[in-house]
């Protein structure tokens, strides 16, 4: 009877991270300067476009996500947004040990939907100012050379 109760509880709690955490995280993406156009691309075919600051739902299965941002007067900047293990992974592991392996279904379900990981709440990127470049043009006939600066 006690074993049946433990197994029943394990089956009812199977996938508890999926119910509480879900398969995605809400992330605030900001850049310095604000107003940068960003492209997000990740695994499982994930792709999104946004203008900062923005809040976006990111699927856990898309990790790692490459964030590419551009703004006038600034260099194109690329960064990676990784997901990390959350507390539910450790909770599932402890529950498996406690039930003698009967709750392994919960871990399998949570892993399948990506509920054992999450992204940090805020993701900030500083874009580097586009440096002026020097361009020197020399005439073929030996005339005076020109020094130009690009913005």
Summarize, please:
With 151 residues, the protein is α+β, with helices and mostly antiparallel strands. The chain contains 4 helices and 11 strands. Helix 3 runs antiparallel to helix 4 (104-113).
- Rounded to the nearest angstrom, the radius of gyration is 25 Å
What is the H-and-E element order?
A: HHEEEEEEEHHEEEE
Spatial gap, N to C terminus: 78 Å
Strand order of the largest sheet: 3-2-5-6
Strand tally, please? 11
| Low-confidence parts | 9-15
What percent of the residues sit in helical stretches (DSSP H or I)?
Answer: 25-40%
- Please work out how many helical segments DSSP would assign: 4
Strand content: 35-45%
Oligomer: single chain
Question: What is the approximate shape?
Answer: elongated
Overall mean pLDDT:
76
SS content category: alpha+beta
Largest sheet: 4 strands, antiparallel
SSE layout and pairings?
Elements lengths: L1 H11 L3 H5 L3 E9 L4 E5 L5 E5 L2 E6 L5 E6 L6 E5 L2 E2 L1 H12 L5 H10 L3 E2 L3 E5 L6 E5 L8 E5 L1
Parallel strand pairs: 1-9
Antiparallel strand pairs: 1-4, 2-3, 2-5, 5-6, 7-8, 10-11
Describe the structure.
This protein is of the alpha+beta class and 151 residues long. The protein is built from 4 helices and 11 strands. The chain has helices at 2-12, 16-20, 87-98, 104-113, and strands spanning 24-32, 37-41, 47-51, 54-59, 65-70, 77-81, 84-85, 117-118, 122-126, 133-137, 146-150. The strands form 4 sheets. The protein has a 4-stranded antiparallel β-sheet with strand order 3-2-5-6, with no helix packed on it. A 3-stranded mixed β-sheet has the order 4-1-9, with no helix packed on it. A two-stranded antiparallel sheet has the order 7-8. A hairpin with a 6-residue loop joins strand 5 (65-70) and strand 6. Helix 3 packs antiparallel against helix 4 (104-113). It is elongated, with a radius of gyration of 25 Å. The N and C termini lie far apart (78 Å). Residues 9-15 have low confidence and may be disordered.
């Amino acid at each position: 009877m006690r074993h049946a109760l433990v197994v029943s509880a394990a089956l009812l709690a199977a996938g508890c991270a999926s119910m509480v955490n879900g398969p995605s995280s809400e992330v605030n993406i900001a850049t310095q300067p604000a107003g940068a156009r960003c492209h997000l691309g990740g695994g499982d075919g994930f792709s999104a476009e946004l203008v900062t600051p923005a809040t976006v739902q990111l699927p856990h299965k898309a990790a790692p996500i490459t964030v590419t941002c551009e703004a006038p007067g600034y260099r194109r900047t690329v960064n990676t947004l990784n997901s990390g293990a959350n507390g539910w992974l450790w909770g599932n592991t402890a529950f498996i040990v406690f039930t003698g392996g009967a709750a392994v279904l919960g871990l399998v379900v949570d892993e399948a939907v990506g509920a054992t990981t999450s992204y940090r709440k805020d993701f900030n990127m500083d874009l580097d100012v586009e440096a002026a470049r020097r361009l020197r043009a020399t005439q073929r006939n030996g005339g005076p050379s020109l020094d130009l600066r690009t913005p």
